[in-house]
Write a structure and sequence with these properties.
It holds the Pfam family Glycos_transf_2. This protein is an alpha/beta fold. Helix content is 42%, strand content 18%. Strands 1, 2, 3, 4, 5, 6, 7, 8 and 9 form a nine-stranded mixed β-sheet that branches. Helix 2 links the parallel strand 2 and strand 3. The longest helix has 30 residues. The two termini are 28 Å apart.
């Protein structure tokens, strides 16, 4: 903490890091890169990290972009955490904006988040993340569970937050210098189970190492996060809730139940009950979808709790915590 260097007034050097892994997202990936290139003012560098897919890396290197874009391959273990750590290593920005490969950012996104980081006490900031539905939004899908799609959910308010959401978040490089990178044992990989919590773990770790700092939610700008048809289903919804429970179980062993579940307690005791009440109120007003949303809220909570219960037992037996050490994030030429 004593060695932390507060930024001097003036322009912060910025980097945008976009991680990708699948050719199936080619079209939306290109839109995400193009949107990153159109930021005003422009980022000092844009880095696209390809997660162990040489063919995709070759295809991207063959594409001509309007502004310089550096294409690199993940040098860390497969998965989103490893890819982000590679982006940290190869970029030079004092602040790094991480974008998902299926998130198309507003033109002022970088400027809006960097403005927050001009306050020395702000370690990182996250924007609004809006769902961009490929098909019609399901009438049963509750706003309170938009986090299952990597989007801003009902109950998240502007100002200080415990953790950032990965699809559109900006973090000071000094955070990684002091705490190491994203934990490769957490987060998404190309496997079917959509695990997460790597951002939450990092933010909790950073808050311990830099206790004067904070993370904030700034919704005045944002990104449109593509939601394909196969994620607008009950199957994916419950699967994602289950996976979140498993992830939270691992996180609770790493960070302790108090910090790992502090926000979730408020969410369960306030946000979800209010959502159920809204659902039944809509039903009384002649909107059957209100009942469906109330059912979805209960089902989502049950699936998450079940995943947590199982994951807590499994994680306690099989997974000791080992975060990515700071030396793994030394600059790579």
């Amino acid at each position: 903490m004593d060695n932390f260097q507060h930024p001097v007034p003036g322009k912060l050097r910025t980097a945008i890091v976009i991680c990708c892994y699948s050719d199936k997202r080619w079209d939306i990936l290109n839109k995400a890169i193009e949107a990153a290139a159109r930021q005003v003012p422009a980022a000092d560098e844009i880095v696209v990290v390809v997660d162990h897919n040489p063919a995709l890396a070759l295809r991207l290197r063959a594409r001509r972009f309007e502004t310089p874009v550096r294409i690199v391959e993940n040098i860390h273990p497969p998965g989103l955490s490893g890819a982000r750590n590679t982006g940290i290593s190869v970029s030079r920005g004092e602040v790094i904006l991480f974008l998902d490969d299926d998130a198309v950012s507003d033109q002022d996104l970088l400027a809006t988040l960097v403005r927050q980081l001009e306050d020395p006490s702000v370690l990182g900031a996250v924007s609004a993340i809006r769902p961009l539905w490929e098909t019609d939004r399901p009438s049963w899908f509750p706003d309170e569970f938009l986090w299952t799609l990597g989007c801003t959910y009902r109950g998240l308010h502007p100002g200080p937050v415990r953790n950032l959401i990965g699809a559109s978040m900006c973090i000071r490089r000094e955070v990684f210098d002091h705490t190491g990178g994203f934990d490769s044992g957490l987060g998404r990989t190309a496997k079917a189970l959509p695990l997460g919590c790597e951002e939450t773990e990092l933010c909790i770790r950073a808050a311990k190492a830099l206790p004067y700092g904070r993370f904030v939610f700034e919704p005045s700008s944002g990104s449109d996060h593509a939601i394909p048809a196969d994620r607008a289903t009950w199957k994916y919804f419950l699967h994602r809730c289950w996976a979140e429970g498993l992830s939270k179980a691992s996180l609770s062993l790493i960070a302790g139940s108090g910090e790992a579940l502090a926000s979730e307690k408020t969410y369960m005791t306030r946000t979800l009950p209010q959502g159920v009440m809204r659902g039944f109120a809509d039903l009384l007003l002649g909107q059957p979808s209100g009942l469906l949303r109330a059912v979805a809220l209960g089902a989502g909570l049950a699936a998450t709790a079940a995943g947590f219960a199982l994951g807590r037992t499994r994680a306690a037996l099989t997974r000791p915590f080992s975060s990515v050490p700071a030396r793994a994030l030394e600059p790579v030429e």
